[in-house]
Amino acid sequence: MLTEVVEEYLEAIYKMSLNGPVIAARLAEWMKVSPPTVADMLKRLSDKGLVKTSRRDGVKLTKKGLETAETMVRRHRLWERFLTDILGLNWDEVHEEACKLEHAISSPQVEEKLADILGHPETCPHGHPIPGTRGARKREKEAKPLSQCSVGDEAIIERVADEDSQLLQYLASLGLLPEARVAVKEIAPFKGPMLVNVCGAQYALGQEVAAKIMVKGK
Amino acid sequence: MLTEVVEEYLEAIYKMSLNGPVIAARLAEWMKVSPPTVADMLKRLSDKGLVKTSRRDGVKLTKKGLETAETMVRRHRLWERFLTDILGLNWDEVHEEACKLEHAISSPQVEEKLADILGHPETCPHGHPIPGTRGARKREKEAKPLSQCSVGDEAIIERVADEDSQLLQYLASLGLLPEARVAVKEIAPFKGPMLVNVCGAQYALGQEVAAKIMVKGK
DNA sequence: ACAATTAGTTAGACGACTCTTATTTTAGTC
DNA sequence: GACTAAAATAAGAGTCGTCTAACTAATTGT
């Protein structure tokens, strides 16, 4: 049996590896722990056959590690849907809650029942694909950050970073939700803000924010 | 912030104290840990102001401890209802699951939303009152075990022990569910089985089993 | 090529929770 | 009052997950 903390690390490695190789120092930042703590944990994860670490490739999930990680991500996102769609929480309140709930499912049967009542959704409320639905991996990798678009580009919001409650409130207030169509009107020089059009209104978005909005090319 | 283990101990103490004074040795059995482990934990619980222990009265929850315990029990039973009523699990499958879920609720708000969608039930699927609904404490204390009934007694099943999955399956197969009316027809001597009538059928129940069925006098 | 940043490692520690084994109290019984 | 059974305590240890401080190795920019 795996501990919750182990599951959290696997999930982190999984998510980080969608953006290139995972190194211990980054993992320490992500998990908000010190480097030696990560080193200890990687040792334990290795011993359990959940990851392989090498100087060259960094941290890689083994098949077993990947399976666990995907299960956790799936459960996390299913719970997020439950919290918004059924309990009626706001999309900025559900991430934290789901972080705990994801570890409290004991069997694939319960997970499936949950998916059943939710109607087998393909994404979480923030637009992230739910592993286990077709094309989840592919969608996860295809989108690009809005910050990388050029003036004149039009795009559809695919998903947004789900961890920062304040950011989510802000995005919702501007209508920057998954499926919304955005058009880049102007980009101020020197990494300045980006003027975008959404739902007929125009807003200036900082690079920071734009980097957290993933879009699919129009 | 309290750990899950601390919450589990408080819950155990709460439930045990409904049947008289709680002593460390019993608590160790209930929690399936060794006596020194319990002693350590009681020390920690005392330090946190959650319990008071004395030679004379055993372990008592403080106001703060009681509040926490009731919250946990309430969440546990709400999740059980969710698991049966909404996810469609069987009543023998939900206790374990709810044991984990109860610790994964971060705020009274989420708890309330859950109660809302469940229609503010008064009991869990096994008939145990949900703290926070009126008269919960009273109902919890009023019922008596079926094993203490006499020949000729008629009674309504109030609740059944919820921890043993096999027992629950067995009870369900006989129709021994909360709200069912039972009549004691015969009690074999020397602590022998009890012949009871339920839904027109007659069954012999061992003392062990009868002790786990709580009834309200007709 | 070398200084400077970044990454990783070693060593020692601590809190939470658990164990076993052994001993001491306490309570109950004859 | 003495003896036994049950309960509690003491002592010592181990795992998991975390820390800080100090040190070494690897990269990288100029």
Report on this model:
The structure is a homodimer of 218-residue chains. By secondary structure, the first copy, chain A, is α+β, with helices and mostly antiparallel strands. Chain A is 45% helix and 18% strand. In chain A, the strands form two sheets. The first copy, chain A, has a six-stranded antiparallel beta sheet with strand order 3-8-4-5-6-7. A two-stranded antiparallel ribbon of chain A has the order 1-2. In chain A, strand 6 and strand 7 (201-205) form a beta hairpin. The termini of chain A are far apart. The A-B interface holds A 83, 86-89, 96-97, 100-101, 103-106, 110, 113-114, 117 and B 83, 86-89, 96-97, 100-101, 103-106, 110, 113-114, 117. Chain A binds a DNA duplex (30 and 30 nucleotides) through residues 3, 5, 23-25, 33-41, 44, 55.
Q: Nutshell version of this structure?
A:
Chain A has 218 residues and is α+β, with helices and mostly antiparallel strands. Chain A has helices at 4-16, 24-31, 35-47, 63-86, 94-101, 108-118, 136-142, 165-174, 207-210, and strands at 51-54, 58-61, 144-145, 154-160, 181-187, 194-198, 201-205, 213-217. The mean pLDDT of chain A is 95.
Task: Record keyword descriptors for this entry.
9 helices; two-stranded antiparallel ribbon; homodimer; 18% strand; 6-stranded antiparallel sheet; DNA-binding; 218 residues; alpha+beta
Number of helical regions of chain A: 9
Q: Mean pLDDT across all residues of chain A, rounded? A: 95
Q: Helix and strand succession of chain A?
A: HHHEEHHHHEEHEEEHE
Chain oligomer state: homodimer
What would you report as the Rg of chain A, rounded to the nearest angstrom?
A: 18 Å
Shape of chain A: globular
Instruction: State which percent range the strand residues of chain A make up.
Output: 15-25%
Largest sheet of chain A: 6 strands, antiparallel
First CA to last CA of chain A: what distance?
A: 45 Å
Number of strands of chain A: 8
Structural class of chain A: alpha+beta
